[in-house]
Design goal:
GO terms for molecular function: DNA binding. This protein has 128 residues and is mostly helical. Helices cover 62% and strands 6% of the residues. A two-stranded antiparallel sheet has the order 1-2.
């Protein structure tokens, strides 16, 4: 079918199709809470700056260790992350073990710090 005929066909079929507008579609946003007929924006929960940093995954630890090497091969961040992901995929399970061990050690650190943080938080609430 010639290109011009295809374009005219799509224009006529588009006009016969029902239009979809944003107002007809139900929006479900995580930022709003529906109460009755009005939407009340939910505030984002503030993170306590004193809270311990989360545990790192084996992949994150691997990326931190190998980022400089990947920077030599790439120009921008997207390429660096692609190179690191490929490097991680090509590692054998045996080569991933040191990163898994470091991750487990970091997880125990996080749990220990979180337990201390929660205990400190509970004591401060008792004094108020």
């Amino acid at each position: 079918m010639p290109k011009a005929a295809t374009q005219s066909l799509t224009k006529t079929t588009k006009s016969k199709l029902p239009s979809t507008t944003k107002s007809s579609a139900k929006s479900t946003s995580k930022d709003t809470k529906t109460t009755g007929k009005t939407k009340v924006p939910r505030g984002k929960k503030e993170k306590d700056p004193n809270a311990p940093k989360g545990a790192k995954s084996p992949y994150i630890i691997f990326c931190q260790d190998n980022r400089e090497e990947a920077k030599k091969e790439a120009e921008n961040t997207r390429e660096i992350m692609r190179i690191l992901a490929d490097m991680w995929k090509n590692l054998s399970e045996q080569d991933k073990e040191p990163y898994k061990a470091k991750s487990q050690k970091d997880k125990t650190r996080f749990e220990r710090e979180m337990k201390a943080y929660k205990g400190k938080e509970n004591r401060s609430e008792d004094t108020d």
